[in-house]
Write a structure and sequence with these properties.
This protein is α+β, with helices and mostly antiparallel strands. The protein has one domain: Aminopeptidase (3-Layer(aba) Sandwich). The chain has 4 helices and 7 strands. Strands 1-2-3-4-5-7-6 form a 7-stranded mixed sheet, sandwiched between helices. Strand 4, helix 2 and strand 5 form a beta-alpha-beta unit.
């Protein structure tokens, strides 16, 4: 298995959209992303991540890895590459709303009360506080 990480081009956004949707993520806004990255094992889309800008801050909107490729550090690599890109775009930190707080804490993320408008976007979602208990977090860009 050789995972290749590549920045996506416009036709690939449909593949990422399908990936995110299949993982239970909300997908509004992918077309306005600053940067999207895919992780592929040959023709298999193993994972992806998308960085956006909202409210004047960098936002990790999506990161997903399909179940059969989990626990191989692909998620970690996706997040690290997105943080690197955020730094290239002159951001000092990246904010995100997540359902998997433990994963991000292992990568150095911390819960935050800054930019609560990001979590307020969740309130209209049918999953909010039913299947999904989101946490607002941030990470420093290396």
């Amino acid at each position: 298995m050789a995972i290749a990480f590549t920045e996506t081009q416009q036709p690939d956004t449909a593949l990422l959209y399908d990936l995110y949707k299949s993982m239970g993520l909300e997908t509004g806004g992918i077309d306005n992303a600053l940067f999207s990255l895919k992780a592929a094992d040959g023709n298999i889309l193993a994972g992806g991540a998308t960085l956006s800008e909202r409210y004047g801050v960098a936002v990790l909107d999506y990161v997903a890895v399909i179940p059969e490729y989990r626990n191989l550090n692909i998620g970690r690599a996706l997040v690290e590459k997105v943080l690197e890109k955020a730094g290239e775009l002159n951001f000092d930190e990246v904010f995100f709303v997540t359902k998997v707080e433990g994963f991000f804490k292992k990568l150095g993320a911390v819960p935050t009360d800054e930019h609560k408008e990001l979590i307020s976007e969740c309130i209209g979602c049918r999953q909010y506080m039913a299947e999904c208990r989101p946490v607002l977090m941030k990470m420093k860009v290396n």
